[in-house]
Automatic annotation (TrEMBL):
It comes from Pontibacter akesuensis. SUPFAM superfamilies: Metallo-hydrolase/oxidoreductase (SSF56281). Coiled coil: none annotated. PANTHER family: N-ACYL-PHOSPHATIDYLETHANOLAMINE-HYDROLYZING PHOSPHOLIPASE D (PTHR15032). This is L-ascorbate metabolism protein UlaG, beta-lactamase superfamily. InterPro entries: Metallo-B-lactamas (IPR001279), RibonucZ/Hydroxyglut_hydro (IPR036866). Residues 102-294 form the Metallo-beta-lactamase domain.
Amino acid sequence: MQQHNTTIRHVRNERLETIKPGYRGNKTIDGQFANGEELFNPPFRKVLRWQLTKNPQREEKKHDTYTPHVQVGSDFIHSDQDMVVWLGHASFFIRLNGVTFITDPIFYDLPLVKRRVRMPCSPEELRHIDFLLLSHGHRDHLDKQSVHTVFKSNPQVKALIPLRAGNILRGIEPQLPYQEAGWFQKFDLVPGQVEVYFMPASHWHRRGLLDMNKVLWGSFVLKTPELTLYFAGDSALAPHFEEIENLLGPMDVCIMPVGAYKPAFMMSKSHMNPHEAIKAYNLLRGGVFIPMHYGTYDLSDEPASEPVRLLEQVAASGALRGLRIPAVGEPVLLNDNLLQ
């Protein structure tokens, strides 16, 4: 029987600075990106088990009608203050030193999954956007229609994306300029007043039948002289949080995913539950904790209100001092009062 020869390569954007000493780039095994050193392919049998297993919280979930509060309006777009504004799921409007970013744009219904909470304004009103930050290629983070909308309203926008995500973007909006980065790399498109780094996450990629782990995933650090902000993307709890803090220092603001974690046998290798997200935030030596990835779409087995309830319980015990749970559309101002 012929032995299969595994091809291992390390890839990065050779034009960009790599901030981790001695790091050769992201490991690929036969063309698939590894989660650090190991390949992660979510096994189909677990999906099947999930579909065939009764959710023990089914009744509780059915009667849980929680949705995040929405602060309707678009004033935040025209303000000149530094701020973070949740747009639902993992989409945020972020302004730092006059530079505006939108993370993981998803403004509409997903195929087969309706959006449970409205946007604070019409997606077309999101203007003066300098950069799209795309953490990975899953359809609830990189949405075709939302990218179209942002580009149509913001012909000047550029995208900062993971390695090999350019092919996806070209298929969506061929004229949208982008720059790809590997883990521990610093983008060089951004004006000097904000530094943007692409950092690790523990996740995976799939959009079609034949592209398993062909595109990288990750997280972002935005850094100004006054403030360091971390956007986690999607991730399981893993050693990279400590590594990020070691390289870039304590994170003043941590935007952390806290939903889509049940059943654990299916979700724990790619998402965090609220307690794990708090552990990661502590590893980052975080200041302000802003939760995301809950309440907007029904993607998993936990009841809708459970992530917020768990976070509030930990905060009430004094073990999560920096918790801020903004409404969709409510600006969290990045000023001295917030960071004290």
